[in-house]
Amino acid sequence: MTVLMPPKILAIVNSTGRQAASVARVAAAVGDHVRAHVNKREGVVAQELEDMENVTIIEGSLEDRELVAKLFAGAHRAFINTISWGDEVAIGIALADAAKKAGVQHYIYSSMPDHSVYGKSWPALPLWSVKFTVENYIRQIGIPATFVYAGIYNNNFTSFPYPLFCMKLQPDAGFRWTAPFHPDQPLPWLDAEHDVGPAILQIFKDSPRKWSGHRIALAFELLTPLQVCALFSTALRRPVSYVHNPTIDISVPIPAGYQAQLEGVEELFGRHKAPYFGPDITAPDEARSLWPGWRGIEEYAREVFPVEEAANGMVWMHDGVGRVNSER
Asked: 69-91: per-residue pLDDT in tens?
């Protein structure tokens, strides 16, 4: 008689985000039961998750202790990527405490570095340092945990005038990226939707025996801005150039707190040329060992960037002009 083992339960917070949604999709596809927290059942990704087999939606605020206890009850594993809704440190601490109380066996936390700890007059980026504070707390309470550091998302690029990763359309139908990164500074890159899920599942499969306490750079390529633009140019078959500007252009409204983050990026990576993850974490070897099927930025630029741009109303991929479709 064959005894079927019950599926493992994986708790995920902020499941509509790129990292978490990738984990939810892959875990559900291989038969894990996913408890996917969402702040609200709104949007395309929330609907996609609700329609998936093996996914249970938990809706509400992470400041609700009863909801958090329900999220972790009986869960074997957890993937946590907090975002700046409310007090991110308090939420991160409460999540870790609840997961430990529930007996979660492997807790993967998406962290980021605090560059100020290295004693090099590097500033702390405010949206990253809170994650580092939570990471240190998780280490102190003794839950089996692994910490992943995400590289720059490939799909940060857009032709809309958002700061830092705008690929601005040019009169010759090409693109120009302007940023404070030195043209020859290697930067880590990640296709979050395609590659986070498989890498995280491999970490879970390897278990805390291999990865407990480790920091892993989730970045599959190290490319300079000049190399990125060359790959975009090859993929799109049009000129793509890079302009180094120490000041980030902000021409649209941005979320509260993001101004300080961008000013920190200008100083940390522009003036100091600090390594993206700090001096202690290297890429991309560990990430590639976890998931050899990663998607590079050239493939992203060729296969995905035009699709995302078209979904946002752009038509440059059809006529080379790059105007917004007024019929949308």
From this structure: 999 999 999 999 998 777 999 99
